[in-house]
Every structure is written in structure tokens, then in C-alpha cells.
Amino acid sequence: MSLEVAKILVYGALNGLNTYVKPGGVHRLRPDKLFDEIACNIVSILDGIVGAYEEGERVRKGEKALTSVELGRILARTYREAYRVCSIVHPGYFTPMLIASMALGYSGVESILSDPGKFKRSLDSILAGNKWGDIRYFIDSLKSIGRSDMNEHLASTGLTQVSLIQSGVSYTDVFQALGSRWPGFILLDPRENLLLNGLRKLVEYHRKLKNAHAAILLLYLDLVEERLGEQYREGISEARRLGLMETHEGARKLFELDVSLRKNGIVLNGFVEQVVNLAALAALEGIR
């Protein structure tokens, strides 16, 4: 079961990454090294997803206590494997689905929306973990994979060894801090509820369109539209009216928007982080 879940998640994540044209974001048609790096990361974490799912399953079966789960070490081990294979790691593109796989194993649900309440309770319980030694191990491991920038960002938000001991910091706090710069981590913020809401919206789009890539593209446009100026919002509205990638005119408009955004230095890859993770989890709902 764990391997099957992992394969579906990897397939869904690659689906989200490949979907084009995502104006301002990484996608298959961009001659961009970042695309190859992310794809490599996603493929390389298959064993990590299996391990996370089985760890949650052991807790559900009573073979170990949730308090004994060392999430930081599980993440660090998966990050190091991605670094070994790819020589670079972009954690925002896969950490939420990795932790979600543990919550799936812990909750025992086959998909998130089959019992969202049970899944969310399991996820929140995992993220509430506050073993300072394990969190410190996770934060320190970021240096070993060439992500000192993430380590330094956490320190700048006040997450230091002293605060870990004195303040009872949890993984929820850590991922909230990371989410302020790498938006993929916002999916793990229980205050935002973006994971469930985004997943429901993606499923609804797919129900209407019967096309996974079209549904993923619409979700991406929803996420970025409010963050853009009026000129670009109007361009997105026109692309929607023209049929997006389903028509030559719609595809051309999306491509023009992509070129214009990049020419003006507007990069929206943080929202691609969210879309890739949501597409991975949506694959368990049958969106493939």
C-alpha cells in the first residue's frame, strides 16, 4: 500500500510540475534548469514517501507512540537522498506531500477528501511535535544539503537553539516561518487551511473539465491572480475567455503573459510549489 501511494503522489507531483503554460512559474515548456532539478527531487524521494507513510502506519497500529516519531530525521534523510541524486534540493516542492503521506498512513484514510476531518487531525498531531532536539536536527541538516539560506532565514525569525528549548517551538512554527519565504510550506499551516481548500477546488475543476492539466492550470491562475497588477489580471481574464490551453488563441495569450512577467522580473514559482504538492495529493482523489 505504501509503495502504491508513493507512486501515485510522485506521478501527481510531476503532473503539477509539467502543466503549462503557468505564467510566471516553472513549467515543461520553459528552457529552465530549475524544472529538471525539481523533477529530479520529486523522483528521488520515492523511498522517503514510503518510509513516511509506513512510519504513520506504525503509529496507527500501536507499534510506536506518536511522541517517539522523529519527523526531523525523516525529513533530513529524504533531503540528503535528494541531494545525493540531484546535487540540489528544493524542499518546498515536496515536503508538504511527504508529511501528508505520513498523515495518510497515521489516519488510515485512502485519500484526503474521503475523510478530511480524520486526515487533518492526524496531520495537525504530527505537526504539533515539539521535541527540540529533533527540530534542531532538522534545521541543522539544511546546511548539509546546501540550503544555508533556509537555515539562516529560520534564525532571522527567532528560531534558534535557545528559543527551541525555552519556547516549546513545534513543527507548525517551523513551517510557518519557512512559508513566509517559500510558499509551499504554507500548505502545512493549519491557520490557512490552504491544503484542504486547494484540494477541494482542484477536484471541483476536474469534475467540470474532465482534464487534469486544465484543472491544475486553473488552480494556479486562481492562486496568482490576486497577487498581480491590473494589467496582468486582465490578461488572465482574457486567457480564460479564450479557452486557455484548449485553444490556439488562449495558449498564445498565456505564453505572452509568461514572457511579459519574466521580462519584468516577476517570478511566481512559490505558487508552483503549492500547485505541485496539491496536484500530488489530488492524484489520490483520481485526478491523473
Automatic annotation (TrEMBL):
Superkingdom as given in the UniProt entry: Archaea
Organism name: Desulfurococcus amylolyticus DSM 16532
Name of the protein in its database record: Triphosphoribosyl-dephospho-CoA protein
